[in-house]
Amino acid sequence: MVESFWEALQKSEDRVRLILDSAAEAIFGCDSNGACLFCNPAAVRLLGYDDASELLGRNMHTLEHHTRKDGTPFPIEECPIFIGFHENHGVHVDDDFFWRKDGTSFPVEYWSHPMVSDGKTVGAVITFFDITDRKKTEEALRKTEQRKHSLLEINNAIINKLTQQALFASAYEAIRRVVSFDRAAFLLHQPETKTLKLVSMDRDTESEFFRLGKDYDLQESRISAWVLDRQEAVVRGDLEAEQQSAGDQRLIREGIRSYCVLPLVAMGESIGTFTVWSETKNRYSEEDAELLQEVANQVALAIANMKSYEEIASLKARLEKENVYLQEEIRTEHNFEEIVGNSTALLDLLRRVDQVAPTDSSVLIYGETGTGKELIARAIHNRSLRKSRPLVKVNCSAISAGLVESELFGHVKGAFTGAIERRIGRFELADGGTIFLDEVGELPLETQVKLLRVLQEREFEPVGSNRSVHVDVRIIAATNRSLQECINAGTFRSDLYYRLNVFPLKVPPLRERPADIAQLAMFFLTRYSRRLGKKIEGISEAARQRFTSYSWPGNVRELQNIIERAVILSPGPLLEVDTDLISVATPDTLHDPTTKAAAVVQPAEPAPALKTLDEVERDHISAVLLQTRGVIEGANGAAKTLGMHPNTLRHRMEKLGIKRTAHRIS
């Protein structure tokens, strides 16, 4: 009986031994003191021993877990296996190091499970794997991710740079974070001379060989010539042993021992090279070359963008010099653009314009709404020495008080909420030219202080900046208000008024130029007939009489609008003007105190009751729809005639209660 028991036990032990020996995982067991009780062949092999007997009875922590992966000692009291054994729980560590017999280490992942007998922990079984291959894979993935991240950073750093200096500086800074170098340079191909011109270096130190602007003969730089031709990178690990040309010999004298040359290719064409040099042998690997080539591709694209930007900037500068701001084809006998008429009042004004235009004096233009103050400002600019520079217009009444300083003087990034980038103000844009401040009386008092400084010192500070910007700008201002009354009311600075009022000009209202009305009417008739595609050859006598007997509270602008509407409504070759057209006054003129005195002159026949704006607009749209037979879209549609989008016209028709079907003619 006893013999059969021991035989069964022996068979059980053999079976367990067979299982342990067959396991691919490395397995060993320890007693409560850490001494090795058993060890399978996989563990013996991974730990670098020849036989399990070398491990049995020896402390496993002392043999294979004595030092951390950073090289510092690993006390057994801090060992996770030892701690798990004494606290009676399993342990799993997925990133640790075991040490071999020969003193080398390898990365492992291990599990430790306590052995319990009669409720007492008597040892532990440890299973572990060599994770060297996994670590290599993880490292390769990490490098790939790092490479992608680096390329993204480099791309973000250089792709939006539109000047040569900014582009190359950003490229060097970004590349140095991923590949080290002692020198780096961009060279652009000069096909006409068969050379490479050094256009940028990463540092200012120059030598006989490295010099900005130097041309390198491709016959002497065979490697660069090959790179340009083949569009492939070249790596030289040991230049002293691999030198092939006179250029290589010069590099050796400069202390260069290895380098990498990469082609710059844009749209399939080699435009130059990018080279990094090192004073250390074998500094650059093929992997470095692959990364640098991707960088070079991005730089080549950025260079192409830079050249396009320079071309655009050149064209923009040329257009500014050829400034034709608001210029029309028609010129009068006085050669003043769009200023039509021969009345004494107008000719006196134009003579004063000719007197002040060649100077740089400030001009203040007075006049009622619609008299043409902007045209006078433009005439002054076009007759000045600044005519080749911009005339920049600012409508001071159309800008909210909170934004007027930013509009006039610009702001820096972060100056206020929403200032996400630097903005150039109108004064800086007008540098060397003229700025026209329309409705200058509407400027806030705090802005008037800055404007006064520009007039006195020719400088200002953008919003949010402490840096002064110097400008050379002529100021022409205009107003339809009495600035003297504004000064008395405390809304306009007297010192600014005297600075602006160096040369005052008063634009006469249309009621003081009755002799010009017929000429102006024909001018606008010709313009709108051509624009609307209608053949209207003249103005009826009845219309002429209405024109000359009307007070024109809205001045030339009102005449222009009435002519345009009359052209739309007139069915024949003569312009007809209905009584209701002449009698309609705009809200601006009804409330403009400067035009109240003009109401003395009345039309020859009694004026009908004034219509509301909605009624006028409804009549106008209805008349156009009747003319277009109810057609809204297309070249001959009502939207085209009215100068608005078809959907906008439909929305207005719906709001005003206009039915399209009522205007269709069967």
CATH class identity of the largest domain: Alpha Beta
Task: Name the CATH superfamily classification of the largest domain.
Answer: GAF domain
Termini separation: 123 Å
Radius of gyration of CA atoms, rounded to a whole number = 44 Å
Tell how many strands the DSSP assignment holds: 20
The figure for the number of domains is 4
The chain-level structural class is: alpha/beta
What general outline do the C-alpha atoms trace?
elongated
Record the SSE blueprint.
Blueprint: H1 2-22, E1 26-31, E2 36-39, H2 41-46, H3 60-64, H4 80-86, E3 91-99, E4 105-117, E5 120-130, H5 132-158, H6 164-176, E6 183-190, E7 195-201, E8 215-217, H7 222-230, E9 234-236, H8 239-242, H9 246-253, E10 258-266, E11 269-278, H10 286-321, H11 344-356, E12 363-366, H12 373-382, E13 391-395, H13 404-409, H14 426-429, E14 434-438, H15 445-457, E15 459-460, E16 469-470, E17 474-479, H16 483-489, H17 494-500, E18 503-506, H18 517-532, E19 538-539, H19 541-549, H20 555-569, E20 574-575, H21 579-583, H22 587-591, H23 613-627, H24 638-642, H25 646-656
Parallel strand pairs: 12-17, 12-18, 13-14, 14-17, 19-20
Antiparallel strand pairs: 1-2, 1-5, 3-4, 4-5, 6-7, 6-11, 7-8, 9-10, 10-11, 15-16
Helix pairs in contact: 5-6, 5-10, 6-10, 15-17, 18-20
